[in-house]
Amino acid sequence: MKLSNLPPELLAERPHLFSSATVPIVAGDLAKMRALIAAVERVVALPQWCEFTKVGAGGTATGVFMGYDFHLTTAGPQLIEINSNAGGGLLAALQAGRDDVLDAYVAMFRTECPRELKVLAIVDEAPREQYLYPEFLGFQRLFAQHGIRALICDPAELLLCHGNLWIEETQLDLVYNRLTDFSLTLPAHAVLREAWRQGVTITPNPAIHARYADKRNLIALTDDALLTQWGVDETTRQTLLAGIPRTEQVTKERAEDFWQRRRQLFFKPAAGFGSKGSYRGDKLTKRVFEEILLGDYVAQNFAPPSTVQVNLDGELTELKADIRNYVYRGTVQLAATRLYQGQTTNFRTPGGGFAKVITL
User: Which end of the chain has the lower number of beta carbons within 10 A, N or C?
Assistant: First the structure.
């Protein structure tokens, strides 16, 4: 399967989805990112982590397309956040021409399914209106090449009957969940949540998000005293503390402290996604800070992204780079870069979007 197999008219409507630039990353930095991911996985496997994240019986859940996002800094790669619903993995693999990664993706979904995977659904709100809808179509085509039928649907189209999910008369073996309602608590997603409770394979699901992607988890991963109390070995602790910017819970009681330090911090909603509601502290107004104090926010030491020179209409333009590692069960399947201007990745920057990674 090739990138050219995606509908050209949809790609034309998304001119900043892909960048023509390539991003060089030294092999040592890629190795450091893999080591940090492995360190996170070791902590997440602890019984104390299940108790801390309150995932209970779902504590051993895995999920497809875990995304570990890094900034490359003078201090080395810094893990900015973990996503349990990392989009773009297929698009990045197609851009890089990585047939081996595409095969690994299909194998991943088969591994997730406890029975033979014949039919799955890719589920999102109004999927045809989603910016990454071309990726949904790409998955549909990829799965078809491997004898798997993939349906693209809104959650309202799903029916739960006798412990199975259906779309009209078609029974599903698995749901690839692209919703950003990570806990599936919205009324419109009640069928999905109940199906998950009844044992239907939904990936990712609320337990996976709680186990990995809630940004409050970064507080524990950068708390040396807590990690020591849990019995985490020194090498793992040092790897985490060196590779994850210190993260703190924002509270009203410490408002003045956070305000005074705001220029060195980045504020994020604990359950946020896609950089929505996130703020660089040096750009923060008093009014927005007061709103942050009323919400459930974490503050992370600011780790500035690296930059890349991109040729745009004959002129060199400097874009910021966010490095995403697509991970399954602790193994990095693909490293990709998103280029952008502004505060956060947005797919609205001329010359920006997904960019190929080359190893130095």
Answer: C
Q: Centre a 10 Å sphere on the Cβ of residue 130 and count the other Cβ atoms it contains.
A: 15
Tell me the per-residue pLDDT of 60-89, one tens digit each, with 9 for 90 and over: 567 999 999 999 999 999 999 999 989 999
Rounded to an integer, what is the distance from CA 118 to the centroid of its chain? 26
Model pLDDT for residues 143-171, shown as the tens digit of each residue: 999 999 999 999 999 999 999 999 999 99
pTM above 0.90, yes or no: yes
77's enclosing H/E stretch is: strand 76-83
State how many domains the chain has.
2
Residue 233 in this model has a pLDDT that exceeds 90: yes
- Written as six digits, the tokens of 338 are 């998103």
Convert the pLDDT of each residue in 98-119 to its tens digit: 999 999 999 999 999 999 999 9
- Residue 332 CB burial class (10 angstroms; 0-12, 13-18, ≥19): middle
Going by C-alpha positions, the residue among 174, 236, 161, 228 that lies closest to residue 205 is 174
Higher pLDDT, 189 or 60: 189
Residue 224 lies in a domain: no
Give the closest residue to 118 by CA, choosing from 45, 154, 172. 172
Q: Indicate whether 232 belongs to any domain.
A: no
The greatest distance separating any two alpha carbons of the chain, rounded to the nearest whole angstrom, comes to 61
Cβ distance 213 to 82 under 8 Å?
yes
Q: Are 29 and 77 in contact (CB under 8 A)?
A: yes
150 & 180 share domain: yes
Residue range(s) defining the domain that contains residue 331:
3-214+306-359
Residues in the chain: 360
